[in-house]
Design a protein that fits this description.
about 1000 residues; mainly alpha; single chain; 43 helices; five-stranded mixed β-sheet; about 5% strand
């Protein structure tokens, strides 16, 4: 029995050597198996050096117990104490891998593989591993031999004899030897099949790239040909059986477990295609059908087993296709889209723990490197390596990546791969998730040399390296473009002009020569402005490339920088406020409207920042806008100056609204695109309508003050109509209004009428004067008698007209009437006057319904522009805005008197109220709402992209692509966008035919 003092001393020593369960460790040390060495100080010291001392001790006891007799036990323990190299290797493996400890317990003699290292064993290659597998003649013995070889790789890894790149290469070489052994077993089992065909095994992925993990699918492609004049179909059948058997030998679970899955899904047509093809069949597929990602995958193709000569023919035949893949349309966009799709498919619960696929993970480095290889490897054969770190080094040597950036990525990639290796080594399971348990994290951290506070240090280092990758994975693609035109440190390699041009073309720049000139103007020189812009531009170029018109984005950025470059706050804003630079890039490359508004007053770029705790792009309320505009009017000298100030506020707020719309539609790196399209439409419609109302209120105040002082001789109100009254204005909409006045006491009708008309004429004139600010067109054509009637009427005149002459279409138009500016009491009385017209008691009669339908039918046949495609006309086409609005308005005219919810000027609100009242089924209401929202979004997109209003999709391909990008379609999917619009409109038209024409 151990004395209490001794026990306490051992307990303390165990804690000091890194044991987490000293009590259990003490019991294991007291076991009979370790009696010969338990008191040897070398043992504890060696165990304390393991990643998990508790695990290492437990594994050592199991291994000792498994020895066939006392002599074998004594040999093992004597060697452990006497031979430091074996001690470090064996305990290092036992402390890092419970799976390899299990293997040693099942095969207790395999520890001998770690005793001696010949010089060739320090970094074995395929030949050495083939010798290690030479005795395997069935799946079970192959697994035992495989793990014996794996044991030596793991020992070199955990002891630091091999670095992470060497370990990955050794694992790939072991996989190569294993595939060859498995194919030999398959051939031996079917000699007739083996005689009929030539079969080449092409390694892909990490195996092909000579950078395999401990546990990973081994990706392969099979190529088959006939042998000795055999029939091709029979030869392919034989090759397929051999390939299938080889895959099963590696993948199936036996009493010794499995090795790893062999995955052939990277072959042409994936799992739906034949497992084995001839070389000519492969070539035919890649020439005609292959997608961009398939050429990217072929970067790592390497013949490893079977008929190596045939495999080399395969690689040589496909090589020209791989190195011209960057010339394909939408090449960069396709690769980047695939990367985004990978991230989007990660379960939310795993995103923060994904070492491989998450943001800042291994795949970010691999994708960036492969993208650069495909772009520049066409002309530079030195870049054609399948190994990520070798390719990164070659890219840096050639000036395609900055040396400092490449060094940081290399370090980060090695650390992340080391973490991945240690995570997988523990149980030899395929996983890329960082564990959550502190015990696991501690073992991983200690295995990487983090010994003070292993868990905290590991998390800190992991996040630091992931942050480096996150920051650099796109920057390395764009930064050298600046180095090609800017001053570099002596000795620093740079992109040639030709290479820079190639990269810009690959990024989607239509005029690379102009783009290089812009970069030179922005980045050259030694000023603080140039230095900050050199830092910003690599990231901005990536964001520009994510748009439909990167050339415009870069040009517009140069214009803004020329205008504001000497303003201290501008560059500080872009450098220090996280959102500002990305928001600016999105806005400048999304179309003409927002940049045009910004160029007229570049200081509005300040709105793109985060502001004081909130986004500068949040819309302002009508009350706040009116307050600012009226304050500017009070300070102004004269109506012209006052309205100029009001129009300046309108321009700034239009930019704010457009910028917010673009950013919300595109999304940012930290915030996904707004999924609710209706919310985007409501936001724009409400913001532009409120802004228009505030502008009219300020202009009215300015005109009255300039002509009459504080009080106009007549009360005056402006009633919004159409989309204005419905809070649904778009960027290019006119302001549809009615003007109403009422003479003040003691003022005769003539004087009041003259004053009211002068106000209207002056407001229209001042709001349309050519200037740097966009005009605001006032349209009063919906007034009684239309263009033939007076611009302004008194309230009594309106009452008399509506009582005697009102037509059905005017009642329909009045459904959208809402006060927007002027005398509130007069406006309220006007609304009281028209309510019985727009919500007639007992509803619109059958004669009125027939008249509405007749007017709609005539409009469809007469107003559609000549040559326009009706199916793509957002306003007048089938299922467009007019269809939905007239259907909703007919419901309002017929049922508004009985259903209070229908008494609204807003289309979507009225539609929802009709559905709630049971006037339209929920499914049909949803169809109409979707069509109306989509048509409105298209109109907004056209205005943002072209800078002028339009009701149809643009014919220019780049403009059409920009509309698609705004609507959420990736490059190359314009056809999908048009098909989706036609489909949505067609469904809506079916509902309209049922509700409007037949209901």
């Amino acid at each position: 029995m151990t004395a209490p003092g001794r026990r306490s001393s051992t307990f303390t020593r165990l804690l000091r050597h890194g044991f987490t369960d000293p009590s259990a460790a003490e019991r294991l040390l007291e076991s009979a198996e370790l009696a010969p060495i338990r008191n040897d100080p070398v043992l504890l010291e060696a165990l304390g050096g393991a990643a998990d001392p508790d695990l290492a001790l437990h594994g050592l006891v199991r291994l000792t117990e498994a020895q066939p007799g006392p002599a074998a036990q004594r040999e093992l323990l004597d060697t452990v104490i006497a031979a430091k190299p074996l001690r470090d290797r064996l305990l290092g493996v036992l402390g890092a891998s419970s799976a390899l400890a299990d293997h040693l317990a099942r095969h207790p003699g395999d520890w001998q593989a770690l005793v001696m290292y010949e010089p060739r064993d320090l970094h074995p290659e395929v030949e050495e591993f083939e010798q290690g597998l030479a005795d395997a003649d069935d799946p079970v013995s192959l697994r035992v031999s495989y793990r014996r070889c794996l044991l030596s790789i793991a020992a070199r890894d955990v002891c630091g004899t091999a670095d992470v790149a060497q370990t990955a290469a050794e694992l790939a070489d072991l996989a190569t030897a294993t595939l060859r052994a498995a194919l030999a077993i398959a051939r031996a089992a079917a000699p007739e099949d083996a005689a009929q065909c030539r079969l080449a095994v092409i390694a892909m992925g990490k195996c092909g790239g000579h950078e395999l993990n401990y546990v990973s699918d081994v990706d392969v492609i099979f190529v088959g040909e006939t042998a000795d004049g055999a029939d091709e179909a029979k030869a392919l059948g034989s090759a397929t059986r051999l390939a299938s058997h080889m895959m099963r030998i590696c993948s199936e679970t036996t009493v010794e477990g499995s090795i790893w899955p062999v995955d052939a899904n990277l072959r042409p047509e994936g799992r739906n295609g034949p497992l084995v093809r001839t070389l000519s069949s492969h070539l035919a597929y890649y020439r005609r059908w292959a997608k961009t990602w398939e050429f990217q995958a072929l970067l790592k193709a390497r013949p490893v087993a079977g008929d190596i000569e045939l495999g080399e023919e395969y690689v040589a035949a496909l090589e020209p296709l791989v190195w011209t893949a960057a010339e394909r349309e939408n090449f960069v966009a396709d690769v980047q889209k695939m990367r985004r799709r990978v991230v989007e498919n990660i379960p939310v619960a795993e995103l923060d723990r994904q070492l491989k696929l998450g943001p800042g993970g291994l795949r970010d480095v691999e994708f960036a490197v492969q993208l650069l290889q495909l772009v520049h490897g066409r002309d530079d054969a030195s870049l054609r390596s399948g190994t990520t770190l070798d390719a990164l080094q070659a890219l840096a040597a050639g000036g395609y990546v900055g040396r400092a950036d490449a060094a940081q990525l290399d370090t980060a990639y090695r650390f992340l791969r080391s973490m991945e290796h240690r995570i997988q080594l523990y149980r030899l399971r395929r996983t890329h998730l960082v564990p959550e348990d502190d015990v696991d994290l501690r073992r991983i951290g200690r295995s990487l040399g983090l010994r003070v506070d292993a868990v905290a240090e590991l998390n800190r280092e992991w996040k630091r390296h992931a942050s480096v990758v996150r920051r650099l994975h796109e920057k390395i693609f764009y930064r050298p473009l600046l180095d090609a035109v800017a001053q570099l440190a002596p000795g620093e390699a740079r992109l040639s002009a030709g290479a820079a041009r190639e990269r810009l073309i690959a990024l989607g720049y239509a005029d690379p020569a102009a783009a290089l000139r812009h970069l030179e103007a922005l980045a050259s020189g030694v000023t603080r402005k140039a230095a900050i812009q050199r830092t910003l531009l690599p990231v901005l170029l990536g964001w520009f490339a994510d748009s439909a018109d990167p050339d415009a984005g870069l040009l517009n950025f140069r214009k803004v920088s020329d205008a504001l470059g000497k303003t201290p706050w501008y560059l500080r804003l872009l450098r220090d406020e996280g959102a500002a630079a990305e928001n600016l890039a999105r806005v400048l490359s999304a179309g003409r409207l927002a940049p045009d508004l910004l160029m007229r007053a570049p200081e509005a770029v300040a709105l793109l920042g985060d502001g004081d705790g909130g986004s500068g792009l949040d819309p302002r309320s009508q009350g706040h806008l009116e307050q600012e505009i009226l304050a500017a009017v009070r300070r102004a000298e004269g109506a012209l100056q006052a309205v100029t100030a009001a129009r300046g506020v309108r321009r700034r707020e239009l930019f704010r609204t457009a910028a917010a719309d673009i950013v919300d539609s595109y999304g940012t790196e930290t915030k996904p695109a707004e999924a609710d399209q209706g919310a985007l439409v409501n936001r724009v419609g409400g913001a532009v309508s409120d802004l228009t109302a505030a502008t009219l209120a300020g202009t009215l105040r300015a005109v009255v003050r300039d002509g009459w002082g504080d009080t106009l001789p007549t009360r005056f109100a402006i009633i919004g109509m159409g989309r204005f009254g419905g809070h649904e204005l778009g960027y290019g909409s006119d302001a549809d209004v009615l003007f109403v006045h009422e003479p003040r006491d003691g003022v005769d009708d003539h004087e009041a009428g003259v004053a009211a008309n002068r106000v209207v004429e002056e407001m229209r004139r001042l709001l349309q004067i050519p200037s740097a600010d966009p005009p605001l067109l006032i349209d009063a054509d919906l007034r009684p008698e239309g263009k033939s009637g007076p611009l302004v009427r008194t309230l009594n005149s309106y009452a008399a007209y509506y009582r005697r002459w009102s037509l059905v279409w005017e009642s329909q138009a009045l459904l959208r009437a809402e006060p927007v500016a002027g005398d509130e009491d007069l406006a309220r009385r006007f609304i009281d006057l028209i309510d019985p017209l727009r919500y007639p008691p007992e509803g619109l009669g059958e004669d009125g319904v027939r008249e509405i339908r007749r007017l709609k039918a005539r409009m469809e046949s007469e107003r559609l522009p000549r040559g326009a495609d009706p199916k793509l006309h957002t306003k007048l086409g089938p299922g467009g805005l007019s269809d939905v609005e007239w259907t909703v308005q007919l419901l309002q005219l017929r049922h508004g008197w009985a259903e209070p919810g229908l008494r609204t000027t807003r289309t979507r609100e009225a539609l929802a109220a009709a559905c709630a009242a049971g006037l339209i089924p929920g499914e049909e209401a949803a169809i109409l709402d979707e069509a109306w929202v989509l048509a409105t979004r298209v109109r907004n997109a056209v205005m943002l992209v072209r800078g002028r209003a339009g009701d149809t999709f643009p014919s220019d391909s780049r403009e059409l692509a920009a509309v698609g990008r705004y609507l959420g379609y990736e490059p190359g999917h314009v056809g999908d966008m048009l098909d989706a619009y036609r489909r949505t409109a067609r469904r809506a038209r079916g509902v309209v035919d049922e509700l409007f024409y037949s209901g």
